[in-house]
Request: fold
Amino acid sequence: MATITAPNTFLQRLIGALALDRAIYEEVEADRGATVQAFLIVLGSSVAAGIGTPAGAGRTVSTVLFFSMVALLTWAAWALLVFEIGTRLMPERATRSSVGELLRTLGFAATPGLLRVLGFMPDVMLPVLFMTTLWMLAAMVVAVRQALDYQSTGKAIAVCVFGLALSVTFAVVLGLLFGPTLS
Reply:
């Protein structure tokens, strides 16, 4: 008799994504129903980044919204760059992925960003930002390796780091051009 297993709950998936569990990323990749969950994680992570804004920005509703929007656009740029680099510039022989599959896994890779809300405490803002960025990068590597069927972790790291560098540059330019003045 065949054993039927139910998909993990949303909470189990969040915990698995935080733990960098490859099986969770494979499950999310294959589950089209996880698209909404992935979107909610990215949205929540972006809002958490907005709430964890620098205290010098005055932490008004407009600065929280601005930093949330920059975080969302930065994630979107990172995801787009990872897709383009990973599927077009650096694919492996086994690389087969759709935009939906990759966006679901990358959405779950944003789970550590939910902790950015802790940045509202001035003394921990920079360490929280640094640690969550590294954690998201590690999660992104797992997500990319699983979604793009890479055999090489090194290639997944290269794709993610290159995408991160370009998207951070994008965020800095947005901040300099349109951001509030920090004192």
User: Anything to note?
Assistant: The chain has a mean pLDDT of 89.
